[in-house]
Amino acid sequence: MFFQNLLGLFSNDLAIDLGTANTLVYIKGKGIICSEPSVVVLRRDNRKPVAVGSEAKEMLGRTPGNIMVVRPMKDGVIADFDATEEMLKYFIAKAHNRKSFISPRVIIGVPSAITQVEQRAVKDAAHASGAREVYLIEEPMAAAVGVGLPVGEPIGNMIVDIGGGTTDVAVISLDGIVYSKAVRVGGDKMDDAIMAYVKRKYNLMVGERTAELIKNHLGSAYPTGRTEPMEIKGRDLISGIPKAINITEEEVRESLMESVSIILDTIKVTLENTPPELAADIVDKGIVLAGGGALLKGLDILIREHTGVPVVVPDDPLTAVVRGCGMMLDKLELLRKISLSTS
Q1: Do 47 and 135 lie in a common domain?
Q2: Residues of the chain below pLDDT 50
Q3: Least C-beta-crowded within 10 Å: which of 10, 83, 136, 173?
């Protein structure tokens, strides 16, 4: 134990939110030092990395035939092991700046519905990237710690973590998850829905980056009163020629309705399965939103209208998971209690 503590003094221990859309890295004593898209650009012939993170995302939809853009995470889990390993190596190296000569202890946030095989894949990728010890924490638990909920007390805390690939809904009490439900719906599915809507209604093909831009600019779950449309550009599917159209907030809201409804249904199912005493706490304290999806305009109002429960959107919900994982770096006893075991 003394040796482990000594190692901790010399290595920069890390917390990583390995997300479908973005990867965030937290260093003990420094805070969040990196937040970049989970994208890797590889050469087709030898699969050597060309770019990772923000630089790689700039190349999305713009690469020649000999280079491919890979999003290694899909629905919150590893879809491409080699690309994930390259991405983790990049982020760990960036966090360390090669100043430390001892491999770091790494805590990684993972979806609550992750299987044993998927857990092992995440751990193996982290070890292959140079980690000394790897702990996995369920994202709703990490997000709850990150937003400051009293997870260790005998009180019901409900968190809804809406990420790029998954939405995790969990009720937490006494350092444990009492009930959780995860669905593979998040920011990516919303982007896909916008692309499909524009294609169906306007015969216009737009790329992933344009769809994400539309979502961030006009996306809403509840009317906000915004009237001015947004000009978007793409390729006309009939003529094959580039063209521009105007799209309104109401149209974007209509395209997102299916994804939002699934999230809403997941919250309702979780509330129905919550023990009565904890449900009473949730009515008093409210539902806390975390993850990038919490930034969707009007989502808190819609959930409140459909459940009758107050909804809280914390400051900076996007970083809740990585902040929670980062706090665990100083609480090793709690970490060992709540981390997932892959043995």
Answers
A1: yes
A2: 1-10, 101, 343
A3: 10
What is the structure's pLDDT at 95?
80
Q: Comparing C-alpha atoms, which of 122, 111, 25 is closest to residue 79?
A: 122
CATH of the domain at 203: 3.90.640.10
One domain, residues 180 and 210: no
Query: How many domains is the chain partitioned into structurally?
Result: 3
Cβ neighbours of residue 244 closer than 8 Å, sequence gap 6 or more: 231, 232, 233
Tokens 């997941």 — which residue?
A: 266
Q: Which pLDDT score, from 0 to 100, does residue 342 have?
A: 53
b/e per residue 80-110 (b: at least 16 CB within 10 A): bebbbbbbbbbbbeebbeeeeeebbbbbbbb
Are 99 and 227 found together in one domain? no
- Residues 42, 166, single domain; the answer is no
- Identify the pLDDT of residue 334: 82
Tell me which of 207, 223, 255 is where a domain ends: 255
- At which of 255, 270, 297 does a domain end? 255
Structure tokens at 260: 């939002």
Same domain, 308 and 246: no
For residue 226, what pLDDT is reported?
77
* pLDDT for position 183: 94
How many angstroms separate the CA atoms of 126 and 122, rounded?
6
pLDDT in tens, 212-226: 999 999 999 999 887
Selection from 269, 76, 91 nearest residue 162 by Cα: 76
Domain, as residue range, for 232: 187-255
* Spatial distance between the Cα atoms of 323 and 139, rounded to a whole number of angstroms: 11
Q: Look-up: residue for tokens 């100083």?
A: 330
Please report the pLDDT score of residue 66 as a whole number: 92
